[in-house]
Amino acid sequence: MVEVAVPCEENDSEADRAALVAHPPVSSPLTKVRRLEKPHLLYYGGPVLPAVKVIALRWSAAVPADHSAAIEGFYRAFTGSAMFDWLSEYDTVGLMGVLDGRPGLEQRIGHGTFAGTYTMTPAFDNAGPRITDQQVVGELAAHIASGAVPPPEVDAHGNPTVLYMIDFPSTVSIRSGRGFTSCVDYCAYHSWVSLKGTPVPYAVLPAVAGGCLAGCGSHPNPFDIATVNASHELVEAVTDPVIAVDSKGGPVRPTGWDDPQSGKDEIGDICNYGPNTDEMLDGYWVQREWSNRWKACIVAPPPNTLP
Fold first, then answer.
1. 8 A C-beta contact, residue 203 and residue 169
2. What is the pLDDT, as a whole number, of residue 218?
3. 127, 3 contact by CB (below 8 A)
4. Pair 205, 266: CB distance under 8 Å
5. Nearest residue to 155 via CA among 113, 190, 199
6. What pTM did the predictor assign?
7. 163: nearest Cα among 232, 93, 114
8. What's the rounded mean pLDDT across residues 216-231?
9. Which of 76, 113, 165, 192 has its CA 20 to 30 A from that of 69?
10. Contact 64, 209 (CB under 8 A)
11. Distance between CA atoms of 151 and 149, rounded to whole angstroms?
């Protein structure tokens, strides 16, 4: 029997949910007004994904095959790109948790790999047009247990190394663990679940159609919006794969990197707002991410500045 823990989602309250989205919320009543504190990511002592192994999952065969083939190329290019070179500034070697002062996990972020695409066959009662995050987790666990999907992996210290990126067809609406609806309230999110004691990071990527096409980006090509959303969630999962909050919604260990001063935001959320949030990288549109070192949202540092 597969042990499934309740997934820990990024958002902790309805008022503060920007960590869910790959762009500002689709519905204007939930749009968040950013406070004026200067962004700065802090390390809370948890893991990062030092050499992320990306597994792409199709929720069902209804996810277009041409999209899956194209997103494979994106994951291969992106995980070996210049962005993953400068993400080394979020290595945890020699760092202490900002709250508890205990040693971190001595990890270094580098290039990742793409490990293949797998098609899920969700159970009939979970495969309808409206599903929940709990059902997503249940199907992921069941497919891992059956061998239809590769199992999660951990390093020598029990830290996760695999990230499941789950694409959904346009006919499926996903209700997050906090009750938000895909393409109405959010564009994408990442979270994690414990399976037999192993932390398993995953990302939910609704199809770029309907509300997600109208409200999740300005690119005329839906695939370009999809790669922007995927880049946002992938980099956030690399720098903060195992999210945890206290009773007041503040980040605590085993959270990785987070910015509570500007609204408990992660590396991508800081750069969600305003014009020119996206940039071309190796032929794909991606979202810029926050650099503490450069105090800016970047895709890569200025030329000739990498150590």
1. no
2. 87
3. no
4. no
5. 199
6. 0.88
7. 114
8. 96
9. 192
10. no
11. 6
Rounded-to-integer distance, Cα 289 and Cα 188, Å: 16
Alpha-carbon distance 119 to 169, whole Å?
A: 12
- Residue pair 9/189 in contact by the 8 Å Cβ criterion: yes
Q: Looking at residue 92, what is its pLDDT?
A: 98
CB 160 within 8 A of CB 200: yes
> pLDDT of 260-276, one tens digit each?
886 658 999 999 876 78
Q: What is the largest CA-CA distance in the chain?
A: 55
Look at the alpha carbons of 186, 188, 191, 195 in this order and tell me if their dihedral is positive or negative: positive
Residue 123's region, left for phi above 0, alpha for psi from -120 to 50, else beta, is beta
